[in-house]
Amino acid sequence: MSGVSATRVEDDEPAVAPAEPSAPTPAEGAPSAPAETTRPAVPERDAGDDAPADGGDGPGDASGDGSDGPGDGAGDGSDGPGDGATPGEPDDRGDPAADDAEKRSTEDVLLLKLFGARRLGLDTAPRARMWGWIGTAVVTLLAAALRLWHLGQPRALIFDETYYVKYAYSLLRSGFEARWPDNPDPGFISGNMDTYLQEPDYVVHPPLGKWMIALGMRLGGAENIWAWRISTAVVGIIAVYLVIRVSRRLFGSTAIGVLAGLFMAVDGEAIAHSRTSLLDNFVMFWGLVAFCFIVLDREQARRRLAARAAAIIDAGGEIGKYGPRLGWRWYRFFAAVSLGLMCGTKWSGIYFIAVFGLLSVAWDATARRSIGVKRWWEDAILVDGIPAALIMLPTALVAYLATWWGWFRNPHSYMRQWAEQNPGQGVSWLPDSLRSFWQYHTQMWQFHNGLDAPHPYQANPVGWMLQWRPTSFYYQTVPGGTGGCSASSCSEAITSLGNPLLWWAGALAAAIALVWLFIARDWRATAVLAGIVAGWLPWFAYMHRTIFTFYSIVFTPWVMMAVAYVIALLVEETAGDRVASRRVKIGIAVFVAAVVGVAAFFYPIWSAMPISYDYWHAHMWLPSWI
Q1: Alpha carbon of 1 to those of 245, 287, 292: distances in Å?
Q2: Coiled coil where (predicted)?
Q3: Do 545 and 450 contact (CB within 8 A), yes or no?
Q4: Is 286 exposed, middle or buried (0-12, 13-18, 19+ CB in 10 A)?
């Protein structure tokens, strides 16, 4: 998504030096003339930060946008340290500009209030932009190497590839998901692929993920096994890139953004899914794209709010009960499209629509409160919330329906003629095509809600964050001297097991983020928890059916961002203590090195490398992993 990196919503705004302002509180009113608005005092917390304020390149600049630290109201920067500073108070950093009584516009003051110094300072210096792109490129290339190396191995239909790859092929050839004869996999793998029957099969997931698999087969040749998986591999690589770019915006730091992407790059769930053509990696991708758009929308909306509020103040008015309107929100619209595509891959995307929609409106509410709107909660509901619902829900629905275009177009699709064959049944007032469509969805819902067939790798969602019962996608014994096996016999395995250090740290990080959300009301904690809540918690309502740990790939990016968030907190909270800061940075370096080392150790069982049985068994740290 180029908008995350190349399209910078702040490009049309004046660059602002990274210093924390103190906008007037609602009770005090707002300045009426920008000429009197001088540089506010720098908060003590920022003054003690030894990192470059340009969003620099080391762990020392790991804090967020500078507006939502401890004590910051609702995380919007409205009540943080330094809020009571008097305009014109000298800057205790000894900035030469302060000696010249540098003037700031009203809009600049509001921007600093809404974003904080660090976020506005990110990428303002050429050196910072350069390191931002270098770090992004290095980690993304690492992710590509781990996902593309020997992508055609193993030469087998792995786990549920037996459904999705063959369905994708029949979609490509006939336009509908066809039934297959008994035991078609050996022939399909050897190149005898056109054995599907000329009748539709009953499938229980929407078609977009299978169309994405089919695209890779179309481009790479369906006879090439790597082509079955190239789409999910590319999606996995792009996901790492997106995690880096959106995390930089969340935390106002290149270093923390690159760390979050590195964690995603070397995580076992992310690697295993990127090398296996299941649907869940596509679900994760569209959810992450939507999240990036939601974050971009937050920034664009706050810039518009600052500009329009400043225009009112500069004209001699004041911000009263209600604030200015923000106009059409393209990023929010694109987020809704992405969420519709997410649902068009698997229905679990519907929970992300609810969570991300509420998150976006909550951010609007805190922004309005921050600039002094007296009835900010009412304003946010009427001006932001209701329009958001009226735009996002229909848009997501239309995008979802669009993923079914092949089903509507092809009369041979499963249940496409149900209405004609069952007159008077179903939702009778709907047109025949939609009546068939609704009946098909009713059957899909009954299947998903009632699935309770026992499976050796089914797992209670309680243990997902700890990777208590990972899913074995593939296991094969290889005789010695064949297939690259140099031992008497070898094991080839693909196990959807997250990097243990990252997921165990992620479970702790999610708990810390939740606590910090209540203590400090930090908007960044809300952001990283949102994806975990949307992707994990709904499954607790489905513990009666068969579910698997590998579903957790959908919220994996936010687990990685949660770990990065806690690292950012550690750096921020020790920034004023040189000894403590050094210890924290050493600890971070040791942790990152351990994570990369564990990834190197586990990579063979994420990628089906032939290894000795003893070496495979050495990876089974818990009995439940076997």
Answers
A1: 10, 12, 9
A2: none
A3: yes
A4: buried
pLDDT at 78 over 60: no
Closest-CA residue to 122 (of 268, 237, 252): 252
Question: What phi, psi does 31 have (nearest 5°)?
Answer: -65, 145
Looking at the domain assignment, is residue 197 inside a domain?
A: no
What are the CA-CA distances from residue 382 to residues 181, 258, 289, 321, 604 (Å)?
56, 38, 27, 13, 54
Residue 452 has pLDDT above 90, yes or no: no
In whole angstroms, what separates CA 337 from the centre of its chain? Answer: 15
Q: Is residue 28 part of a domain?
A: no
- Which 8-state DSSP code applies to residue 65? S
Other CB atoms within a 10 A radius of the CB of residue 531 amount to 26
In three-state secondary structure terms, 152 is coil
Residue 580 lies in a domain: yes
Q: Quick check: helix, strand or coil at residue 611? A: strand
Instruction: Report yes or no: 528 and 562 within 8 Å, Cβ to Cβ.
Output: yes
Q: Is residue 539 part of a domain?
A: yes
Distance between CA atoms of residues 385 and 359, nearest Å:
10
For the chain, what's the residue count?
626
Q: List alpha helices for 6-93, DSSP H.
A: 44-47
Range(s) of the domain holding residue 353: 113-150+230-417+459-619
**How many domains would you assign to the chain?**
1
Distance CA 189, CA 180 (A): 14
Q: Is the pLDDT of residue 69 over 80?
A: no
Question: How high is the pLDDT of residue 98?
Answer: 45
Q: Is 154 helix (H, G, I), strand (E, B) or coil?
A: coil
0.90 surpassed by pTM: no
Residues 531 and 558: beta-carbon distance below 8 Å: yes
